[in-house]
């Protein structure tokens, strides 16, 4: 009884948050899944339970295939691009360099600005106007003798171009993560490896790189989950065009333009599932790791 | 160290700085474009001069952009200030309990909270709209389509990250301090108020910056949950820029205006901004 008295006040203090998370996160995810399993294809009908019908029939729609393919291409380009660039910048700075604080601040600042605001300038930079009408990168490339591009309007590689602003925005963050990782490697470990006759590259390969694995995993998870739900960047750069469609934009169209709640909920469910399959194992892993240490 | 080795090391440092400077230039290109274009008059808006500095500098675009964007900026203030303060209060209490006044199952609960940090908001969007519409009917107040509903959404979905930041910070307070307070007969709230809260400064700063930035920059919740009267700056900016007739100079001036508050926070409080980011990576 006295033990209950010691922890009960704490539980009471957290109770409002427990209720809020229960209702707004888990309750609404469940609500959304249930809606996705009904035939409520307009605003007024009741909606009967139809099981997984919507989840299957979505794959009959060409637009869904397009948006899934786009999401995959965007994710590959963005995650790889931000990871490699972020790692590279951290690698250049890891041993300490004059003016490091300034470099870090400049690489990080795009994170402070919204996708909507930067989307405006990137839409201009990646304008597909050619020849005399060229602005942005195309005008610049023309001036220095590089070929002009269609950028995000390219039917094949457009989504890779769309990843450029996202890489610009997030690679500074990845740099900061890796820099923290590099600095977390004890100097004694490196020294010991050198004494054992390792070359600088050997030290990096056998001592530093393995210790960077947790940081790399964190960065992958964060970038991946941003990528799968990407929305405001796409809207700000290209609007609701099919040529740059992704599931999150398709969902917006389903809800507001087609007025089809069940379809919107189905798309939303797929986005949730795609994030959950790798975030849940990651969370379990990282909580276990913390408990061990 | 031999002279050759020292020379090689100096050369490699030079190369590294050189590469870093090149990337600085690349990173600043969008900022250059934003600034330069925003000061151009309409007559210089032709593609041929796209990358040049303005020949005549004018703040005309800024004036128009300010006129168009001002209501949205004010809405964003009404959203971000109370929103981040409320998030801070909730996160602080949760973090305190989950690190220093634990109850059975606290670990499991914390993990369940954390998942909320990663859920794509699309997955709760439609039910959230329905719930807020229901609240409107039930209370007769404006939740859906107005700022209060948007604040509610941000505060609730901000609970996971705010709790995480405060919990990771409070873990570093020695348990003996809490024990001593208990021995002196202080209860949970008393201990929180006179022992924990006074040393919470850095965590409060991190959470306020983090939440202020994400509330200010949010677009998805705003576009689903607000109406024209309560559009925050991001939605209004998107609409201004989406209109074909709006000249580039005005679009870019408006984009800068909408970014001033978060940029200021970044410049003035960059260190705390950084800590908030690291907390987001699940590192203490």
From TrEMBL, chain A:
InterPro entries associated with the record: MetI-like, MetI-like_sf, UgpAE/MalFG_permease
GO biological process: transmembrane transport
Gene3D superfamilies linked: MetI-like
Transmembrane stretches, start-end: 7-29, 71-93, 105-125, 157-180, 230-255, 267-285
Membrane topology according to the record: Multi-pass membrane protein
Protein location: Cell membrane
Domain ABC transmembrane type-1: 68-284
Record-linked Pfam families: BPD_transp_1
Keyword vocabulary terms for this entry: Cell membrane, Membrane, Transmembrane, Transmembrane helix, Transport
Record SUPFAM superfamilies: MetI-like
Cellular compartments per GO CC: plasma membrane
The family this protein is said to belong to: Belongs to the binding-protein-dependent transport system permease family.
Protein name: Glucose/mannose transport system permease protein
Lineage, top ranks: Bacteria, Bacillati, Actinomycetota, Actinomycetes, Streptosporangiales
UniProtKB/TrEMBL annotation, chain B:
Membrane topology label: Multi-pass membrane protein
GO biological process: transmembrane transport
GO CC field: plasma membrane
Domain of life of the native organism: Bacteria
Transmembrane domains' residue ranges: 17-39, 73-96, 108-133, 145-170, 191-213, 253-274
Main localization, broad class: membrane
PANTHER family the record matches: ABC TRANSPORTER PERMEASE PROTEIN, GLUCOSE IMPORT SYSTEM PERMEASE PROTEIN GLCU
SUPFAM superfamilies in alphabetical order: MetI-like
Domain ABC transmembrane type-1 residue range list: 73-269
Protein name: Glucose/mannose transport system permease protein
Source organism of the structure: Nonomuraea muscovyensis
A Pfam family this chain is assigned to: BPD_transp_1
Source species taxonomy: Bacteria, Bacillati, Actinomycetota, Actinomycetes, Streptosporangiales
Keywords: Membrane, Transmembrane, Transmembrane helix, Transport
Family of this protein: Belongs to the binding-protein-dependent transport system permease family.
Subcellular location(s) per record: Cell membrane; Membrane
PROSITE patterns in the cross-refs: ABC_TM1
């Amino acid at each position: 009884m006295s033990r209950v008295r010691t922890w009960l006040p704490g539980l009471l203090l957290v109770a409002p948050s427990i209720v809020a998370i229960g209702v707004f996160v888990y309750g609404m995810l469940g609500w959304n899944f249930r809606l996705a399993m009904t035939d409520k294809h307009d605003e007024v009908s009741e909606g009967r339970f139809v099981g997984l019908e919507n989840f299957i029939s979505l794959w009959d729609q060409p637009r869904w295939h397009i948006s899934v393919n786009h999401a995959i291409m965007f994710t590959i380009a963005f995650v790889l691009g931000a990871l490699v660039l972020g790692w590279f910048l951290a690698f250049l700075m890891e041993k300490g360099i004059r003016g490091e604080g300034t470099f870090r601040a400049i690489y990080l600042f795009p994170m402070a600005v919204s996708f909507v605001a930067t989307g405006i300038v990137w839409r201009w930079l990646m304008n597909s106007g050619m020849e005399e009408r060229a602005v942005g990168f195309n005008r610049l490339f023309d001036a220095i003798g590089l070929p002009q591009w269609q950028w995000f309007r390219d039917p094949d590689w457009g989504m890779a171009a769309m990843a450029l602003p996202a890489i610009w925005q997030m690679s500074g963050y990845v740099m900061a993560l890796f820099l923290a990782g590099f600095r977390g490697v004890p100097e004694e470990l490196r020294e010991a490896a050198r004494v054992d006759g390792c070359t600088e590259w050997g030290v990096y390969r056998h001592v530093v790189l393995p210790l960077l694995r947790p940081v790399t995993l964190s960065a992958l998870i964060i970038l991946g989950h941003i990528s799968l739900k990407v929305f405001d960047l796409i809207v700000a750069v290209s609007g609701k065009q099919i040529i740059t469609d992704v599931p999150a934009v398709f969902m917006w169209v389903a809800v507001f333009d087609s007025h089809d709640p069940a379809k919107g909920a189905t798309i939303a469910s797929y986005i949730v599932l795609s994030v959950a399959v790798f975030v849940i194992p990651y969370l379990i892993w990282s909580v276990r790791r913390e408990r061990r240490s | 160290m031999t002279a050759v080795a020292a020379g090689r090391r100096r050369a490699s440092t030079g190369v590294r700085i050189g590469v870093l400077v090149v990337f600085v230039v690349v990173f600043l290109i969008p900022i250059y474009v934003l600034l330069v274009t925003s000061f151009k008059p309409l007559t210089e808006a032709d593609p041929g001069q796209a990358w040049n500095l303005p020949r005549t500098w004018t703040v005309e675009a800024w004036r128009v952009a300010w006129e168009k964007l001002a209501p949205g900026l004010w809405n964003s203030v009404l959203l971000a200030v109370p929103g981040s303060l409320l998030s801070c209060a909730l996160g602080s209490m949760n973090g305190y309990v989950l690190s220093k006044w634990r109850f059975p199952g606290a670990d499991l609960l914390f993990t369940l909270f954390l998942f909320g940090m990663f859920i794509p908001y699309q997955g709760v969007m439609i039910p959230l709209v329905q719930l807020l519409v229901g609240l409107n009917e039930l209370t007769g107040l404006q939740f859906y389509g107005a700022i209060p509903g948007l604040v509610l959404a941000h505060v609730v979905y901000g609970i996971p990250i705010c709790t995480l930041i405060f919990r990771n910070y409070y873990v570093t307070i020695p348990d003996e301090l809490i024990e001593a307070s208990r021995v002196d007969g202080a209860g949970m709230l008393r201990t929180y108020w006179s022992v924990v809260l006074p040393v919470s400064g850095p965590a409060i700063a991190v959470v306020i910056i983090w939440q202020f930035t994400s509330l200010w920059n949010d677009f998805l919740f705003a576009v689903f949950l607000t109406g024209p009267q309560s559009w925050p700056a991001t939605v209004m900016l998107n609409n201004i820029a989406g209109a074909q007739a709006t000249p580039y100079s005005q679009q870019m001036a408006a984009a800068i205006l909408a970014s001033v508050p978060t940029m200021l926070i970044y410049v003035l409080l960059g260190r705390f901004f950084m800590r908030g980011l690291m907390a987001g990576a699940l590192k203490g």
